[in-house]
Amino acid sequence: MPDILTLLGDTWTTVRYPLGGATCLLGALLCIVGTIGVLRFPDFYTRLHAASITDTSGAFLVLLGMALMAPHWLVLVKLFCMLGFLVLTSATSSHALANAAHTAGLQPKIGPVGQAGHEDHEEAGH
Amino acid sequence: MAYLLGIFLAIVAFWMGNSGHYTPLMLGFAALSVVLTLVLSARLKIIDREGAPYVRLAGLAAYYPWLLLEIAKSNWVVIKACLRADLDISPALVKVKTTCKTDLAKVTFANSITLTPGTVTVEIEGDKLLVHGLYEANTVPEAFEEMDRRCARAADPAGSAA
Amino acid sequence: MTFAALVAILIGMCLLLLRALIGPTMYDRVLAVNSFGTKTVLVLGLLGYVMGRPDFLDIAILYTLINFVSTIAILKFFRYRSFQVPLVRRTDAASRAGDGNA
What we know:
The complex is a heterotrimer.
Chain A: H1 2-40, H2 44-68, H3 73-103
Helix pairs in contact in A: 1-2, 2-3
Chain B: H1 2-19, H2 24-44, H3 57-83, E1 92-97, H4 103-115, E2 119-125, E3 128-133, H5 145-155
Antiparallel strand pairs in B: 1-3, 2-3
Helix pairs in contact in B: 1-2, 3-5, 4-5
Chain C: H1 2-22, H2 26-50, H3 56-80, H4 90-101
Helix pairs in contact in C: 1-2, 2-3
């Protein structure tokens, strides 16, 4: 039984650095995907959705990868704090942005975008 | 007093987790900063039920794994939308009615909607939320019913849950 | 591999600067800057790992909070044109906004 445990521990110590690096890389690629979305999407509200990819899955995966490579338990605590703050603040600032834009009278584009044969029928939000 | 104790414990835990230096001098500075923070929070009058939401902690802890799964699912949809060659999206703006009673439950619900990519809460008025979605088909009031129910169960007081 | 992730996020930040430069409305720019800040946090953490100094995470935590506060401050400033306006309760804020827009 202790043999299996030590074997598991050894495997874990050898595997966690490549695994953490790969997770970080995946998260970073998702950040780029979110950025591409921010560049491509047609209006402000849709760009907000693309930016939230970076804020949720990208940040989560990068932080998870860093946690897998953590050299010390204090680092884990700090990463957990960062994750908590990011989750709380990114949602709040997204909402604040959307609310500010809506209050200022920026109308979102409604209806299908970018498909051939469809025209943007201007339905005001309300 | 219980709220004060709750905030005190949270701040001390935060300091302990972030510092890593446990010499007497550093611990003295820690005590000083903790007391200063508590005085400032008392002056801001944020030592209340929302400042130390320990009662709801169990419900929220049960809620977050489900939310994580939802975020992963909707992430996939938005990632596909970002990388498609043709920009095939149809944004929509809908009003969603919530059954959440307390402010905390409403905030949890609205923040969950904002946190899932593809939907953003634009405005809250009473128990109605204005939600902007990336796909018309995914942004219907029925799509948020389960999240609403879970938020109400997680953050509302036990008596008023539907 | 951590270094590759670092470079990837830096490329993403450069692309985001493009959006911050060309963004048609002010909100696009604020969105880009906010997202830029999130990426900066991630870069700070990864930089700490690449350089072998995870102490950088302290700065990253601080930057998370400052990023949030600065976004809210920018939005508040452009809505009220002043930092002196107290953010009051909902009904007052609604009537105040109505007055401001009229």
